[in-house]
Structures are given as structure tokens and as C-alpha cells.
Write a structure and sequence with these properties.
heterodimer, A: alpha+beta, Translation Initiation Factor Eif1, four-stranded antiparallel beta sheet, two-stranded antiparallel sheet, 5 helices, B: alpha/beta, six-stranded mixed beta sheet, 39% helix, Large ribosomal subunit protein uL4m (chain B), ribonucleoprotein (chain B), Ribosomal_uL4_dom_sf (chain B), mitochondrion (chain B)
Chain lengths: 177, 282
């Protein structure tokens, strides 16, 4: 602004026409001085189309309402595997999360001294799943390690004492869950 | 008293008025009613469907016509009883304002004079009798009034609260589906007989997808204090537990399913789980 006033004074002294002066004195960022918006055809050339071939480009830009189903490929670089087992194949079933990931989590509590592996979304006979996982972990670690588990049947949660997240995930993927 | 006045006014209205109000929704209901067999939005690898009979309210005797499919994620989820409890506590607390009040030293209505001289009396030194050491004085760390207990429950706890309570209601046979809320008379005795004969709980909550309810049931339930009407947007955990039986219309079931499944499967869930701000809509 200061630069503009300086510029204007110089202009006045040199005697340039008033019209130009008012142009120079125009303020920015003011509601009153800003021009009134005109019809949108003044700013951009456009034509209204209702063809479905062009609508698909608009659809591509619209935000998704559901998380899309991922591909069935098993060789993805991330190592993600699709769920191949269907409900009813085993007496138990572990549903994927809404992001199609395995619902196996590590719960750290007691200032990091207690580590619990938690499997959520367990459906069907949760006691059979507990038995199967216990058997698998016993085979992995040998008989010396005690695998303590806790079953919450109503919520469908299975907790295993200790950090066995990768083992459990491997086992579930091998089963196709 | 006010409600009775309102009932008189509603009775005075021409019957075409309420009919016209409901015309749009009735048309939608009828068009959707034929598509009940069509599977709902997302299935995933989920368990077998939950199902319910679609009965009617226009005769006292139950006359179920079709079976409606209920989505297992909404009506057959593993009930999180802890989340239901959290919802109930939240619903009681967010509207509670504590008016318990005590005075601080400056507020006590008592003389501000020094009770006795500082020295020479053999007594403890005191500057004012308003202090908490004196009888009738102020209270230390006492409650100060207009304490709001408002807080917002995390978004997905609210969603899971609804799905858990609906599932619990369905599995306890306290959830019934009807095709619409049309009854032949506005006599409260009719609805009482109907509820008794079908062995529904003494308290019943009727839920429709719109808040323009049919005339007859509105007038009938106006007289009965333990039954209520509610639109889908008012559905909440506390009311579902307060009333023993939940009666949903087919349109309400569709709407509840659509909204809850959208929330359970939306890709921009982080938008909904942002911190609650009073001046911003989530």
C-alpha cells in the first residue's frame, strides 16, 4: 500500500489523468471495493452435458461411501493376503476388519511389562479356536512355555498372554482366514 | 394438559392433512416393501442373516405376512455390554448440570472486622470470622454450582452402542418389525389389547423412519404413558433399554441399516472421530 501511495504522489506531480489514478488507488482485500461477481460464463467457457460417458469421470472424483473390496491377488508387495476361507469351513471364524486387515492386536499394559495378543471379531465356536491356537503355539514354542489364554465369548475376543501377534497372524493366514 | 389440548387440535384437523403429510413416505414404504428379499449393502464374510417376521398393527391378532432379512452386523453383532453401559452413562451425564454450591471466604455474609486484636489476648490470631476455620465460615474445595458434566462419547462407541443394543433386543425377542404404524382406531384400549395379546412388554417404543406419525396411533399413544413414538433420528441406547419392547417399521429397519452400515464401512471414519467441537459439526 505504501508503495502505491508513493507511486500515486509521483503520478500526481507528473500530472497523469485522474482515471488512471483511481485505478492505482484500488484497495485489495476489501469487500466493498471488490467487483460484483458476474455470471459464471464470464470467467470460464463451459457447456452443460448429461451424457453418461462423461459422468463416469465425475464419479471417479466423488468420495467413496464404502471401503472397496480389494483384489484377490496373493502376490501383493505389501504381503497382504485376501480372506479365502468362507464362513462354515471351520467351526470358528475370524472376520476381517472394515479395512480387510486381520483383527489381531498387541495390548501393552502395566508400564510395558504385560503383553497380551488379542484376537477380535471371532465368530462361531470360540473355544475351538482357542484350542487350535494353543495347540499351534505349543508346537512352535515347545511344551516348556505356558500359553495362557482368556476367552470372552459374548464379545468374541480371544486373549493370549505374551506377544504372539506375528505367529497368530501367520497361522490365521495359513488357514485362509 | 398441554398434550390433551394438542390432541383435541389434532382431532379437529381434517384426516386428509395427516394423510397428505405421510403420502410421500408411504409411497416409498410400498415401493421398498417388495424388495425385502434383496440383500442389504455389505455382507463381507459374515454369518448367516438374522431374520424377523413382518407383522401388522391393523388387527389385534398377529398376522405376519413376510420375513425381513436383517443385516448381521447391525442386528446380529456380538454385543459389547460394556459399550452399552458407557452409552447409558454418557446419555445420563451429558445433560446433567450440578447445582450443588458452597461459598468461598469472600462470599460469606459476615462481618469483615478482625474478631480480636492480634496480640495480648492469649488466643489464636485471626483476621476474619469468614474463614473455613470458623463455624458458619466458608468451605474449602466445596462444589461450585453450574458444573456441567457434558462430554462426548467417541463416535464409534456410539455406533457400536446402537448395534449392540439392537442385537441384544433382537436376540431377547424384544424387537418386532411391522409393515406400518396404521391402526384402525384412535382408542388407547385397542393398542393396550394388542400389546397384551402379543405378549409384548408393558412398555413399548414404536419407531418409524419419519417424524410425521399416523394420526390414530399418535392419539392413542398420547393417552398411554408407558408407550411412545419415535423417529429413526431419535433412536438411542437409553430409550431402547427404557422401553421393554422395540417395534420398528420396515422403513425404519431399512433406514437404520443403511445409516449404521455406512458408518461401519465408511472410508473416511477419521472425519467422524475427530475431537468434538461445540461450534463445529462432525
Amino acid at each position: 500500500m505504501a508503495v502505491r501511495i508513493l507511486f500515486k504522489n509521483a503520478m500526481l506531480r507528473s500530472g497523469i489523468s485522474l482515471r488512471l489514478n483511481s485505478l492505482i488507488y484500488k484497495r485489495d482485500s476489501s469487500y466493498r471495493s471488490s467487483p460484483i461477481a458476474q455470471d459464471s460464463s464470464c470467467y470460464a467457457k463451459y457447456e452443460v452435458s448429461s451424457s453418461p460417458e462423461e459422468w463416469k469421470f465425475v464419479e471417479r472424483l466423488l468420495p467413496l461411501t464404502t471401503i472397496p473390496t480389494p483384489s484377490d491377488r496373493k502376490d501383493l508387495p505389501s504381503g497382504w493376503q485376501p480372506q479365502t476361507a468362507t464362513f462354515g469351513k471351520y467351526p470358528y471364524f475370524v472376520h476381517r476388519t472394515r479395512n480387510h486387515m486381520l483383527p489381531v492386536y498387541l495390548k501393552v499394559s502395566m508400564r510395558g511389562t504385560r503383553r497380551i495378543t488379542q484376537i477380535n471379531n471371532v465368530d462361531g465356536n470360540i473355544w475351538m479356536l482357542e484350542e487350535a491356537i494353543k495347540k499351534y503355539l505349543m508346537r512352535v514354542y515347545g511344551d516348556k512355555k505356558i500359553i495362557a489364554t482368556k476367552v470372552h465369548e459374548v464379545c468374541g475376543h480371544l486373549c493370549i498372554h505374551g506377544d504372539h501377534v506375528s505367529r497368530v497372524k501367520e497361522w490365521l493366514l495359513k488357514k485362509g482366514l | 394438559m398441554l398434550l390433551n389440548c394438542l390432541a383435541k387440535q389434532i382431532r379437529a384437523l381434517p384426516s386428509t392433512f395427516t394423510a397428505a403429510c405421510r403420502l410421500s413416505t408411504v409411497a416409498v414404504e410400498n415401493s421398498e416393501f417388495n424388495e425385502i428379499e434383496e440383500p442389504p449393502m455389505v455382507y463381507g464374510g459374515y454369518t448367516e442373516l438374522r431374520q424377523a417376521w413382518v407383522s401388522n398393527l391393523d388387527t389385534i391378532k398377529e398376522n405376519p405376512s413376510t420375513i425381513i432379512d436383517l443385516h448381521p452386523q447391525v442386528f446380529g453383532s456380538r454385543p459389547r455390554i460394556d459399550i452399552i453401559h458407557e452409552n447409558v452413562v454418557w446419555q445420563k451425564k451429558y445433560k446433567y448440570v450440578s447445582y450443588a454450591n458452597t461459598k468461598v471466604t469472600a462470599e460469606v455474609n459476615m462481618s469483615s472486622k478482625k474478631p480480636w486484636p492480634q496480640k495480648g489476648q492469649g488466643r489464636a490470631r485471626h483476621g476474619t470470622r469468614r474463614s473455613p476455620l470458623f463455624r458458619g465460615g466458608s468451605v474449602i474445595h466445596g462444589p461450585r454450582s453450574h458444573t456441567t458434566h457434558f462430554y462426548m462419547l467417541p463416535f464409534y462407541k456410539r455406533v457400536y452402542g446402537l448395534t449392540s443394543t439392537l442385537s441384544v433386543k433382537l436376540i431377547q425377542d424384544d424387537l418386532h418389525v411391522v409393515n406400518n404404524l396404521d391402526i384402525p382406531t384412535d382408542d388407547p384400549g385397542y393398542i393396550n389389547d394388542l400389546v397384551d395379546s402379543r405378549l409384548w412388554g408393558p412398555s413399548v417404543l414404536f419407531i418409524d423412519d419419519t417424524d410425521t406419525m399416523p394420526k390414530n396411533i399418535s392419539l392413542a399413544l398420547n393417552q398411554i404413558k408407558h408407550m411412545n413414538l419415535m423417529p429413526v433420528y431419535g433412536l438411542n441406547v437409553y430409550s431402547m433399554l427404557k422401553y421393554e419392547t422395540l417395534v420398528l417399521t420396515v422403513a425404519a429397519v431399512k433406514k437404520i441399516q443403511e445409516r449404521l452400515l455406512y458408518q461401519l464401512h465408511r472410508p473416511d471414519g477419521h472425519q467422524a472421530t475427530r475431537k468434538f467441537m461445540l461450534n463445529k459439526q462432525n
